[in-house]
Write a structure and sequence with these properties.
Helix content: 25-40%
Largest sheet: 8 strands, mixed
Number of helices: 6
Strand content: 15-25%
Shape: globular
Mean pLDDT: 87
Radius of gyration: 16 Å
Structural class: alpha+beta
């Protein structure tokens, strides 16, 4: 259906158009559909303080160039959502490390969803997230998310540690999780979505993607 492309500071020039569509689709979903007023802006682009030179985007692009889904990684050694906005979600220190990245802003294009049924497109994005983590040397993933994600990811076989309490937020009840990136989690996720052992990463990503070098400058959103 589509493949996941890893976009970082070193190759983002080649993905300028898909990245803009990604920000527009994020706005359509998070502001338009889910009514997240905390991230609403005067222009129809959903961009926050962590969409900077350190961000790594996972873009699902099909053979016709359509943007089908995506997500984002942010290094935990830099400012990120859990450390700078929601530290109260972690009992004790916020997990940080060169091999720990924060996961945020997962989405699937509306036309590829199936209400009440598992979405193959969502499965591709989730499996792509784990595959990209292996390529990038990420061993753990932290996430601030709505409470339903805990059960959903555990049913997929993802090893998860809950970091702290549930907090009521204007956009819904949220928690923080720490996820171990394992081959078993990837295998069980592939099985759950009928993806067999086929990689969902674009072929060029398997050959060329690597952890980005620290950028010379940081763009402030």
């Amino acid at each position: 259906m589509f493949k996941i492309h890893i976009v970082n500071w070193s190759n983002r020039k080649a993905y300028e158009e898909p990245l803009e569509r990604h920000f527009r689709l994020r706005h359509q979903i998070y502001v338009g559909e889910r009514n997240w007023r905390q991230v609403e802006r005067p222009i129809p682009l959903e961009i926050d303080a962590f969409d900077n030179a350190d961000a790594i985007y996972l873009l699902g692009i099909d053979d016709n160039g359509n943007l089908c889904g995506g997500s984002r990684f942010v290094p935990t050694l830099k400012p990120h959502l859990l450390s700078d906005v929601f530290p109260m979600l972690a009992d004790g220190d916020v997990p940080r490390g060169h091999d720990i990245y924060e996961w945020t802003r997962i989405f699937v294009a509306p036309l590829l969803r199936k209400p009440g049924e598992p979405s193959l497109a969502a499965g591709i994005v989730l499996c792509g997230l784990l595959e990209a983590a292996f390529v990038l040397g990420i061993q753990q993933i932290s996430v601030v998310c709505e409470t339903f994600w805990l059960d959903r990811l555990e049913r997929l076989g993802w090893p998860i540690k809950r970091l702290g309490p549930t907090i009521d937020h204007p956009d819904g009840a949220i928690i923080a999780l720490l996820i171990q990136v394992t081959e078993a989690a990837l295998a069980s996720s592939r099985a759950a979505y009928g993806l067999d052992d086929v990689s969902v990463l674009a072929a060029c990503q398997l050959k060329n993607s690597q952890k980005p070098e620290p950028p010379a400058i940081v763009i402030q959103a």
